[in-house]
């Protein structure tokens, strides 16, 4: 019997390998041919080694050049005509929109995942209007739209986009075996970690301000930063490291070794998150979290139980919560971490997400088979 084909469209190899690997592995195990279209990155080789077929794509993740967008749409149409997938899975904004438009034009079933609205969509203005119009066009024939939080889904409801096709899932979920419960550090030095792309909207400036204040007043603390710089921060971080205010470790392939020595993860983002993977991974590892009271973050925190919520762009509020955390006993900090682990086990197991996708794909294939049978008669 001819193998079914799944085409996955993403804007970065990490989007697949770090957060959707279990789905890819299950599809391969079930006999699907899995094609991945993404700009090249080091994780592509890992995906090819487990059996995926790779098609390189060129995507400008942040720009809005009309010619480049047209080329991306044309490219997606070309590869869909070549591969003839049974279903297309799209993630992130541009693959969702242009992959959706291409699949719609070729009458190929497709499933989209809203991994966050992005600043252009969240903030009112001409870009939001353009984005809404594009989503309406792209999702006209979509089979399913997965959302990572209720606020994003409500935005689509309010704008009458793909009504009746919505389903909220727990973000990308978290692999509870890969991010297993780590022993809580017994060190008398209280260590904090920021793990993210280093850009203004991720709250790096609030984290730096907090690190300066806390280090000056609580010398038994350490502040770490992991991630690659998207903004112009590298020189400042290197300078702060020389001043012994924080330690900058750059981009890290495996964050678990840093979580093992950390007492708390701080994520003061005000970027339009879908569901923060950093918080899920930290909580799964048994680490308390301090993060912003906004959609995509607040869902992972039970205030005072497994972490704290802070106001957006409010360094003073962040400092107060860090001080509150520091004042806890070692046992209380450890209990907070255990509570986070239990929460993600209940609500954010990645298998929930995998099962939702397998169900949606099965429904598409059954409908397709039924339609073909009726047409043949």
UniProtKB/TrEMBL annotation:
<feature type="domain" description="Glycosyltransferase subfamily 4-like N-terminal">
    <location>
        <begin position="5"/>
        <end position="149"/>
    </location>
</feature>
<dbReference type="InterPro" id="IPR001296">
    <property type="entry name" value="Glyco_trans_1"/>
</dbReference>
<dbReference type="GO" id="GO:0016757">
    <property type="term" value="F:glycosyltransferase activity"/>
</dbReference>
<keyword id="KW-0808">Transferase</keyword>
<dbReference type="InterPro" id="IPR028098">
    <property type="entry name" value="Glyco_trans_4-like_N"/>
</dbReference>
<dbReference type="Pfam" id="PF13477">
    <property type="entry name" value="Glyco_trans_4_2"/>
</dbReference>
<dbReference type="Pfam" id="PF00534">
    <property type="entry name" value="Glycos_transf_1"/>
</dbReference>
<feature type="domain" description="Glycosyl transferase family 1">
    <location>
        <begin position="192"/>
        <end position="342"/>
    </location>
</feature>
<protein>
    <submittedName>
        <fullName>Glycosyltransferase family 1 protein</fullName>
    </submittedName>
</protein>
């Amino acid at each position: 019997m001819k193998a079914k084909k799944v085409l996955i469209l993403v804007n970065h190899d990490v989007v697949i390998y770090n957060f959707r690997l279990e789905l890819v592995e299950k599809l391969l195990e079930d006999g699907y041919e899995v094609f991945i279209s993404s700009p090249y990155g080091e994780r592509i080789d890992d995906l090819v080694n487990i059996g995926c077929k790779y098609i390189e794509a060129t995507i400008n993740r942040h720009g809005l050049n009309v010619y480049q967008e047209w080329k991306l749409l044309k490219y997606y149409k070309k590869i869909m005509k070549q591969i003839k997938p049974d279903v297309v899975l799209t993630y992130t904004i541009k693959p969702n929109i242009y992959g959706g438009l291409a699949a719609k034009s070729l009458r190929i079933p497709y499933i989209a995942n809203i991994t966050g609205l992005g600043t252009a969509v969240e903030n009112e203005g001409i870009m939001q209007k353009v984005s809404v119009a594009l989503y309406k066009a792209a999702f006209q024939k979509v089979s399913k739209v997965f959302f990572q939080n209720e606020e994003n889904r409500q935005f689509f409801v309010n704008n009458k986009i793909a009504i009746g096709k919505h389903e909220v899932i727990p973000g990308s979920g978290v692999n509870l075996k890969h991010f297993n419960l780590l022993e809580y550090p017994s060190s008398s030095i209280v260590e904090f970690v920021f793990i993210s792309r280093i850009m203004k909207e991720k709250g790096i400036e609030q984290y730096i301000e907090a690190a300066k204040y806390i280090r000056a007043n609580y010398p038994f603390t350490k502040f770490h930063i992991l991630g690659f710089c998207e903004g112009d921060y590298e020189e400042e971080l290197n300078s702060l490291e020389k001043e012994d205010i924080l330690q900058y470790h750059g981009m890290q392939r495996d964050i678990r070794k840093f979580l093992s020595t950390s007492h708390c993860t701080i994520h003061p983002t005000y970027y339009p998150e879908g569901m923060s993977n950093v918080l899920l991974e930290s909580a799964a590892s048994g680490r308390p979290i301090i993060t912003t009271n906004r959609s995509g973050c607040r869902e992972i925190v039970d205030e005072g139980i497994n972490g704290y919520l802070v106001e957006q762009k409010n360094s003073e509020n962040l400092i107060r919560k860090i001080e509150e955390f520091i004042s806890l006993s070692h046992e209380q900090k450890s209990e907070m971490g255990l509570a986070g682990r239990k929460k993600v086990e209940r609500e954010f197991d990645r298998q929930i997400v995998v099962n939702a996708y397998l169900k949606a794909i099965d429904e598409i294939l059954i409908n397709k088979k039924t339609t073909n049978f009726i047409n043949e008669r």
